[in-house]
Amino acid sequence: MEKTVGSYQAKTHLPQLLERVAKGERITITKHGVPVAVLVPPPAAEKPDVRAAVEEMRRFRKGRSLDGLTIREMIEEGRRF
Q1: What pLDDT sits at residue 62?
Q2: To 10 degrees, the CA torsion angle through 55, 57, 58, 60?
Q3: Above 70 in pLDDT, residue 1?
Q4: pLDDT tens digits along 15-49
Q5: What is the per-residue DSSP string for 22-50?
Q6: Are 39 and 18 spatial neighbours (Cβ–Cβ below 8 Å)?
Q7: Pfam families, alphabetically (predicted)?
Q8: Dihedral of CA 67/68/71/75: which sign?
Q9: Whether the Cβ atoms of residue 29 and residue 37 lie closer than 8 Å to each other
Q10: What are phi and psi of 48, to 5 degrees?
């Protein structure tokens, strides 16, 4: 069930409302009885697939070289801009 609160109540009880939203509740904020905003929990954050990222970097570097440049030279070149 979605909870509805007035804007004054939302202002005075925001920390408590945010705790409830963090637990998954949706809260509609109204002004003079008209919905003006909805507090919703953020979408679930996806954890990056580290192994897939490493494998993608390995595939990317195949057939590529730095043509004799060192990492230090590349850093210094980047700092010029």
Answers
A1: 86
A2: 120
A3: no
A4: 999 999 999 999 999 999 999 999 999 888 678 89
A5: HTT--EEEEETTEEEEEE-PPPPPPPP-H
A6: yes
A7: PhdYeFM_antitox
A8: negative
A9: yes
A10: -65, 145
Of 53, 34, 42, 50, nearest in space to 18 by CA? 42
Tokens read off for 76: 């210094």
**Chain CA centroid to CA 63, Å:** 34
Q: Is 57 helix (H, G, I), strand (E, B) or coil?
A: helix
Cα separation of 34 and 28, whole Å? 10
Task: Give the Cβ contact number of residue 9 at 10 Å.
Answer: 14
CATH 3.40.1620 is held by the domain 3-39: yes
Per-range mean pLDDT, top range of 12-16, 62-66, 70-74:
12-16
- Kindly report the number of other CB atoms within 10 A of residue 3's CB atom: 13
The neighbouring-strand residues paired with 28 are 4, 38
